[in-house]
Amino acid sequence: MYFVSAAKALVAAAVFTAVTAHNIVLPAHGRECFHETLHKDDTMTVTFQVGDREFGSAGNLDIDFWITNPTGQYETNEKSISNGDYSFTAKHDGKYVYCFGNEAWTANTKEVSFNVHGIVYVSEHEMPADPLDREVRKLSDLLAQVKDEQEYIVMRERTHRNTAESTNSRVKWWNMFVIGVVIGESLFQVWWLRRFFEVKRVV
């Protein structure tokens, strides 16, 4: 019976979810770093989406993303990606640093929308004593997650819309170029035929 009670207390005290959402402008050849202080067995998730700032633009959206733990080792180190979703469980207490790098020589200014989700383990005496308070806190966390997902979807939709607008613009200008070439070729052929017959008439 004691084991069951202890297990219930552990589960009840185990989980609180923390959520933060951010939008940053990542300048060309720059980087932005943030950190979270975690305890051992805390879980952290970072999701991000890269977008263009200008409507109709669809340039290179690739950036670098990495996370380092308190010992200076990489939890992940991704190169040339435009979105990501990475989760890990902290093995040490301390500061975990995550960075977005836009340092490629062809880089242009980008906008990064990212969410940080964390499952924080707290002791039983630190939890709200009132069950209603616990439920309100859980509901607040869920609403925050829904809001973050909506912002993430908006960013993805804007990125896809920019890509479509850019593609349409390029197709339009290519068609105009082709039409110009056809008109130019037709005029040249008319001129050449007239010149040919004029030469024939002279001869």
From TrEMBL:
Keyword Ribosomal protein (UniProt): no
Residue ranges annotated for the GOLD domain, each copy included: 31-118
Topology in membrane: Single-pass membrane protein; Single-pass type I membrane protein
Record flagged with keyword Coiled coil: no
Compartment list: Endomembrane system; Membrane
Alphabetized UniProt keyword annotations: Membrane, Signal, Transmembrane, Transmembrane helix
PANTHER family reported for this sequence: TRANSMEMBRANE EMP24 DOMAIN-CONTAINING PROTEIN (PTHR22811)
Family to which the UniProt record says this protein belongs: Belongs to the EMP24/GP25L family.
Protein name as catalogued: GOLD domain-containing protein
Organism lineage string: Eukaryota, Fungi, Dikarya, Ascomycota, Pezizomycotina
